[in-house]
MFS transporter
Amino acid sequence: MFKRLTTIAAALVLSVSAATASAAYPERPITIVSPFPAGGATDVLTRILADRMSKALAQSIIVENKAGAGTTIGAAYVGRAAPDGYTLLMATNSTLVTNRFLYKSLPYDPDSFAPIGMVGIGPLVLLANDKHGFKSTADVVAHAKQRPGSLTFATFGPGTSSHLAGELFKQEAGIDLLHVPFKGATQALPAVINGDVDLFFDMVATGMPQVEAGKLKVYGITSKSRLATLPDLPTMSEQGYPAFDLTAWFSFVAPHGTPPDVLETLQKALVTTLQDPQVRQKMLNMGIEPRSGTASELTRQISSEQPVIEKLVQQAGLERQ
């Protein structure tokens, strides 16, 4: 009897200790892992949000870059982290949706993360260097048809939104392009600018400054409708490819087993951050539409997008790596 009471008392002490620790969250700096290199759109967005969320949480937030392998390196790192709310992941559609259809095995489980909230969504732009003198998307397609397989396209890595955009372009235009993967935009852009790679579907935030500087040409945007900040840039759909409606999206997730009250604290801080007018304007300037910051929207986004991406991967004939 005494042994049983001792066991119960010990369990209660542990329960109270856990509750107290959780209630005090966050007591120390939080790390958000960005699965892309520093300087890219995902990294920039993560740092904008981290700066404002740190104020909402009254605690420092550190952004750590763990890039490569289509976000799998960063995702695996966070997946192995302690579920205490101190290591989070900026997860993209590659992380939570696409990778499951492109890899035979993953170093993480896309379904195991605890959702914090949906952050934002944004289209990509079709870029090219001036090596071939393309004036339009039609010129790109004409060249590709005349010389099948001669044009290359850069991406953030296998399974990323830029990769899927390139594959969709190949399908819609009936052309053959050679995929050249990089770790992120900061690695891909110099290769495109130098003429080592011909084409690149990049995020607005990193691609358009190169266009404005006269280093690259831009021909279209991957969303169904034009972007308010780029009203003169036609969509790929407008240019004769009606099925072109592809965007990149961003979210925050935590390791499986993170306490519900910690997740709630993080979600409230994220919602507050996404309601901040300065944060919203910075995101819009990047070509990213702020979303609700809720876990329910993120769950719906994952669920609705899975069959669409699975079909695209199958139609593109992409084999699991």
User: Anything to note?
Assistant: The domain at 30-121+248-316 is CATH 3.40.190.150 (D-Maltodextrin-Binding Protein; domain 2). The beta strands are 30-34, 61-65, 87-92, 114-128, 152-155, 178-181, 199-203, 217-221, 247-254, 289-290.
